[in-house]
């Protein structure tokens, strides 16, 4: 995702709540929702407030996103610094390209200094394959394998691995190489997973709440969905690290642990939908339709 010279072209983690369907041919089979409902407390991990950013928009809506320091530590350190220095306070949603991305930050003509960051991070587009990688037992169109590491969607060629551009995943906008982006402009995928972007930009997090307040925006009228000028942009009132908020204002979320038996059962249920509606189960699931569920902390 370039700042301007962009390539043309899910799920954000969904809070659970869909009604289950369980009957098929008289036999009862657990639905994905039923698996979630039955999952023990041990199957859920609380997201650290040090990794949560709460972004408040001018219309009063809030978007909360989780950072991924294990996979892009330099870019994430930059984003934390930018948030804590107030860089995003008064920034804007810059671009909404239909079925592709929403992008935010300060426009190119805004010369506000980004203080205390590494202006030239390394290309954190891929990393050594972690020992904890749990591959899905289904083929992937873009990689040898796709699966999860600590509940993040990850693809691999057997040697290296990378975070995947699923709906709701967040990346760092950049210019043409060798620029890697500093974190001053970010984007999230809002359409069919743009997997062609994998390993071409730094993926640094995911939206876990309020995705609808990014997708439900007028599409930009300029090339690549950019807004023409400030009159079309919606302002970001503030961006705060959850850890810096008073306890009473601090959001708390849990993500399903991809190493838990409950998660394995949920994946199986997602791949083999049952119930009166489904005539034929797929027997497979795409990684971007198997993003770890999120719930508010219990």
TrEMBL record:
UniProt keywords, alphabetically = Isomerase, Rotamase, Signal
What the entry lists under InterPro entries is as follows:
Cyclophilin-like_dom_sf (IPR029000), Cyclophilin-type_PPIase_dom (IPR002130), E_coli_cyclophilin_A-like (IPR044665)
Tell me the ranges covered by the PPIase cyclophilin-type domain, including all copies: 62-241
> Which Enzyme Commission numbers does its entry carry?
5.2.1.8
Q: What PROSITE patterns has UniProt attached to this entry?
A: CSA_PPIASE_2
Q: What is this protein called?
A: peptidylprolyl isomerase
Q: Which SUPFAM superfamilies match?
A: Cyclophilin-like
The molecular function GO annotations come to: peptidyl-prolyl cis-trans isomerase activity
Secretion signal span: 1-24
């Amino acid at each position: 995702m370039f700042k301007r010279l962009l390539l043309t072209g899910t799920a954000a983690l969904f809070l659970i709540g869909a009604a289950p369907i369980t009957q098929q041919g008289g036999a009862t089979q657990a639905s994905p929702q039923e698996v979630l409902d039955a999952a023990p407390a041990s199957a859920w991990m609380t997201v650290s407030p040090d990794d949560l950013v709460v972004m408040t928009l001018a219309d009063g809506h809030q978007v909360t996103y989780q950072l991924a320091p294990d996979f892009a530590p330099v870019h994430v350190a930059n984003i934390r610094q930018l948030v804590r220095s107030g860089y995003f306070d008064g920034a804007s949603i810059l671009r909404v390209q239909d079925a592709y991305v929403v992008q935010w930050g300060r426009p190119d003509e805004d010369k506000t200094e980004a203080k205390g960051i590494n202006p030239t991070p390394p290309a954190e587009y891929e990393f050594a394959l972690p020992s904890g990688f749990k591959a899905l037992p289904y083929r992937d169109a873009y990689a040898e394998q796709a699966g999860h590491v600590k509940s993040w969607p990850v693809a691999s060629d057997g040697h290296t691995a990378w975070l995947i551009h699923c709906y709701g995943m967040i990346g760092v906008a950049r210019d043409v190489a060798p620029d890697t982006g500093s974190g001053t402009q970010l984007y999230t995928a809002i359409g069919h997973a743009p997997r062609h972007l994998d390993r071409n930009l730094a993926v640094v997090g995911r939206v876990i709440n309020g995705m609808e307040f990014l997708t439900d925006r007028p599409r930009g009228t300029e090339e690549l969905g950019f807004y023409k000028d400030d009159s079309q942009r919606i302002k970001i009132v503030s961006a705060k690290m959850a850890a810096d908020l008073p306890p009473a204002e601090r959001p708390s979320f849990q993500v399903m642990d991809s190493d838990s038996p409950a998660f394995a059962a949920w994946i199986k249920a997602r791949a083999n939908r049952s119930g009166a509606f489904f005539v034929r189960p797929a027997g497979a699931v795409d990684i971007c339709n198997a993003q770890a569920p999120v719930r508010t902390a219990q």
